[in-house]
Amino acid sequence: MLFYVARRLVSGLVLAVMVTLITFLLLAPSFNGIVGNRLGSAATPETVAQMKAQMGLDRPLATQYVDWLSHAVRGDLGRSYFTGIPVRDAVEQHLGVTLSIVLVTLMLTVVVSVALGVLAASKGGLVDRAVQALSLTGHLIPNLLIAIVLVYLLAVKSRLVPATGFTSLADDPAKWAQSIFIPVIALLIASVAGLTAQVRGTMIDELRKDYVRMLRTRGVPTRSVVLRHALRNAAGPALTVLSFEFVAMLGGALIIEKVFAIPGFGSYAFDASLQGDIPIIMGITVFAVLLVVVVNLTVDLVNGWLNPKARIF
Amino acid sequence: MSITPGILRRPRAAAAAFAVAALLASAACGGSSDTPDATGGPTADTLLSTAIQAPPSSFALTQLDGGQGSYVWGSLYDRLLYIDNTGAIKPNAAESFTYSADRKTLTLKLQQGMKFRSGAPVNAAAVKASLDRIRDTPGPNQANEASIASVEAPDESTVVIKLKHPDGSLLVNLAGINGVIGDPATMADPGSATDPMTSGPYELDKARTVPGSAYTLVRRDDYWNVKAYPFKTVRIVVMPDRAAVVNALRSGQLNAASVDPTQVDPLKAQGLQVKPIAASTAGIMFLADRKGTKLKPLGDLKVRQAINQVFDRTKLVQMFLRGSGMATTQVFNPKSQAFDASLDKDYPFDVAAAKKLMAEAGYADGFSVTMPSFVTTKPFEPVVTGALGAIGIKVTWEPVPLQNYSSALSSGKFPMFFAFYGLDHEAVLSTLYFSPGTPTNPFKSADPELTKLLDEANAATDDATAAAAYKKVNQFVVKNAWFAPILDIGTTWVTAKGISYLGDGTSVALDVRTFGNAG
């Protein structure tokens, strides 16, 4: 297994190099524009050329990329063109903010979705229809609308939670919980809707299989059949959906971050792209690729642990 | 058999459920969010808490930008001069400033006893080093010092700036970014981008600052002019979303911010004070190719005048701004000395007259033009397309990413374009709009008459003469239809009880001194 993990991590690094190279090449045609914007109304062909030289953007593209890569492998991702902040610090800080919202959302998603999905699949009838209706409603209601209503009720009217902003967990756990409360709820509803439908569907499939009938005829308690056997087999597809949700949320949290003025990864990536802050964009790309690689690897390992037949190592 | 209770009986599931419950309980029992920590709420010692839409860029002396980030860096750095809330240029770190008779030498006398946070003195050498560094380093403010021939520091408190030619915008620039005073010992350090050594009225509270998101500034009690800054603590939060700003004002997290005029009513109902500023940003159609080198019709005055007559400006102000702005044919601030109210009557909305002008110019069937489409111009594009279409001008909008804004305009690819610019001081706007080769004058338009008027304005020895000269500059560009200004966008300031917004639109300087604590 260790060899498998090492192989996946190495292939992840290769993927990161390829993706950052493509990103860099996509940014290259904008170099003049980025420098021009930095100069604003003072941008003339002469000042743009002068500043490009100062920033090293006049060198051959291959030289620039290799230079960046040689620093990146040593952990030095450079500094933001616009703020001068070290890229690694900035990206880690913003990623930490988003992760602290997304991980809580995912944790709650798992708890709620598994409970609802299993309940619907095992009970059937009215309960199943109610869960399906809830799931559909969750899909249909835009999370931004939910956020706006919750802000009005909980922040503006009741002042129970802040309307905007973020407090880090390390600074003050209670205020952190308050600051992420509405964003988590807003993200949670669509996420739960998706995973509940997935868990319900796979659980129904599992509960109809022969081995379940066999277990029941042998007198194994229903709770054990459902939770120990059927749910374990149904967890694979759900985990895959969850990993997609995680990746989607990293970027998809953008709107929530904007609405709540949360300094997260999505809004930071968006702003850096608008500005053309090349070092930040490259740093964000590196972190995003590595995160996706690690999440996919983790899902494969957990899948294998849950279901030996699904092992690919 | 019930499944859910079973799940809850399992220790791990119960722990997860407990975590959820704790989260909800914590949120429900946490009380008010009035904390100046990362959530940005005011407490007893945070007297001003406001929002900006975009974070400041680098704090390095040569890379400061003039947007809303000015609230932050303008509080950290001290400046030579200061533009007060009536738009007048006043002494600041320089206690006096005098021009020579030929307006080519400016002598500044510095206040005594000024110190950087490090304790090092703020003296003429520091001012000279700062001016020299901005002038010699590529950056957004380098061009503002193009007129400076040399800077001398004959003694500890005297700075002499020698100019190549009179420069009417120099004093305004010295009250802005070009007047900031950096510490010669550290101004070149990379660390100055985030933590510069400054001598201004506030210092950054790093423990309560998240770069790019929220800045907490604490007043320096040893600052030489501390009485001009009533707020002990200033909290500036980055909020790109306008609805978030309103929510933060309503929930008490902010006590001063600008909002969209459409959002004022609930804020008023909540007892917040509202102060509208009629004009702070101009929406202008730049008819840049005035010689017709790329688009021949634009070289004809009648075509440019026709374009000016196809916009129903009054209706557009109502439609887009709900009345929070004003219709205008001028590029200058309505409160500036250059503004001439009579010029607003020059181009009334009259499509028939515009068509006649087009026919007289030989373009009765119109022509085609490609204009750049930026994310900022999108809401106005259908209006521009429709208005120009009324006289046969077919517009194709070419999407341009915002990061390519300056280079796209400078490239000379677009003979006309629509853009927004702040209604700055007339001297600054004259440099911005009429300097050849810049993004706002990509076709290097020049005219001997305009050059003469600008020279007169630059060499004016008193305000009245300068005002008369800039008014003539304005009359020239309106009569010659160099632009087709459409509307001025206003700003609506909302403040909580105890806070007042002191500006009236005359000055567009973004400075914490535009807020008072007597509201």
Automatic annotation (TrEMBL), chain A:
Any one Pfam family match given in the protein's UniProt record, by short name: BPD_transp_1_N
Record bears the keyword Chloroplast: no
Residues that span the membrane, as ranges: 12-31, 97-121, 133-156, 176-199, 238-260, 280-302
Membrane topology, as annotated: Multi-pass membrane protein
Tagged with keyword Membrane: yes
Domain (ABC transmembrane type-1) ranges: 95-303
Keywords for the protein's UniProt record, in alphabetical order: Cell membrane, Membrane, Transmembrane, Transmembrane helix, Transport
Gene3D superfamilies attached to this UniProt entry: MetI-like
InterPro entries: BPD_transp_1_N, MetI-like, MetI-like_sf
UniProt-annotated location(s): Cell membrane
Family the UniProt entry places it in: Belongs to the binding-protein-dependent transport system permease family.
Protein name per the record: ABC transporter permease
Protein source organism: Actinocorallia longicatena
From TrEMBL, chain B:
InterPro entries: Peptide/Ni-bd (IPR030678), SBP_5 (IPR039424), SBP_5_dom (IPR000914)
Matches recorded under Pfam families: SBP_bac_5
Domain Solute-binding protein family span(s) in chain numbering: 89-424
First and last residue of the signal peptide: 1-27
Keywords: Signal
PANTHER family given in the database record: D,D-DIPEPTIDE-BINDING PERIPLASMIC PROTEIN DDPA-RELATED, PERIPLASMIC BINDING COMPONENT OF ABC TRANSPORTER
Protein's recorded name: Solute-binding protein family 5 domain-containing protein
